[in-house]
Structures are given as C-alpha cells and as structure tokens.
Amino acid sequence: MSESRAVPDVSVVICTYNRVAGLEVVLDALERQVGVGFRWEVLVVDNNSSDGTRALVEHRQATGGLALRY
User: Fold this and answer.
1) How far apart are CA 46 and CA 57, in angstroms?
2) Strand order in 68-69's β-sheet?
3) Tens of pLDDT along 7-34?
C-alpha cells in the first residue's frame, strides 16, 4: 500500500452544519501543521449543509495538502 493510501494513525473529525466560514479557518490551520510525526487525515462530517460546505471540501480535496475526506 502506498504511503498516501496508508491507514492513518489519527483521524481529525470535524462535524459541521452550515458553518462554511468557520470550516475554512479550521482547514487553513490544519494545513499549516507540519512535522507531526504520524500519518493523519481530516474527515468532514456534514449534516446536509446548504451553505457551500460540500463545494469547499471538494475544492480543498483537489487543491489542498490535507488528506481530506468528506
């Protein structure tokens, strides 16, 4: 299994509902984390938001540096 597809040691789980602005701040902060010393992922659990949360996460999956799941 490749390193990028390896099972993470830690999952950061973010539960959200119509809080896209706050989610963007959190994802920015998580992207700045370096040298943590283990494999980790970010999992966004969205409670059917109507404010663009899905679009933000999909954009960040395509362009960001996080192992990000929706």
Assistant:
1) 10
2) 10-16, 40-46, 68-69
3) 899 999 999 999 999 999 999 999 998 7
